[in-house]
Amino acid sequence: LSRCSLSYTPVNMLAENQPANGGTTLNTVYGFIGLGNMGAPMCANLVAAGMSLRVFDAAGTAERTPQGAVVGDSIADLAANTDTIFLSLPDGKVTHAVCEEVLLAADRRVSRIVDFSTTGPEAAGAIGAKLGAAGITFVDAPVSGGRAGAVAGSLTVIASGPGGDVAQLSAAFDAVGGNTFHVGAVPGQAQAVKLLNNFLSATAMAATSEAVLFGQKFGVDISTILDCVNVSSGRNTASADKFPNRVVTGSYDAGFATALMTKDVALYLEQVRVAGTPENIGAVVSARWNAALTDMPESDFTEIYRHIAGESKTRE
Question: Can you give the pTM of this predicted structure?
Answer without folding.
Answer: 0.88
